[in-house]
Design goal:
Length: 89
């Protein structure tokens, strides 16, 4: 029997291994102004890991607006997961 869970796993194997590890945990959700809806958010280091870029390169992605950022009340930035997948070449 092909359960829903099994189907999800099959689909996920097509995505990068590193992405799965991040996706395995529950990610905090926040409203992304650019997407206009609630999205899952990542820390900068998680985002860098998924894109396989260093913090400097990630900074360039953010500055170019290729990846959406969401400011937090504590003054740090979280990264919109939706935009991250769009940014993967
Ligand atoms: Zn977004």
């Amino acid at each position: 029997m092909l359960s829903l869970e099994h189907k999800a796993k099959v689909r996920i194997t097509a995505v990068r291994r590193r992405t799965i590890r991040v996706a395995a945990g529950a990610l905090p959700r926040a409203r992304c102004a650019a997407c206009g809806r609630e999205v899952e958010t990542l820390t900068r280091s998680q985002a860098g890991e998924i894109l396989e870029v260093g913090d400097q390169e990630l900074g360039a992605f953010l500055a170019a607006g290729r990846v959406h950022t969401i400011p937090t009340v504590s003054g740090s930035l979280r990264v919109c997961k939706e935009s991250l997948f769009a940014a993967i070449p």
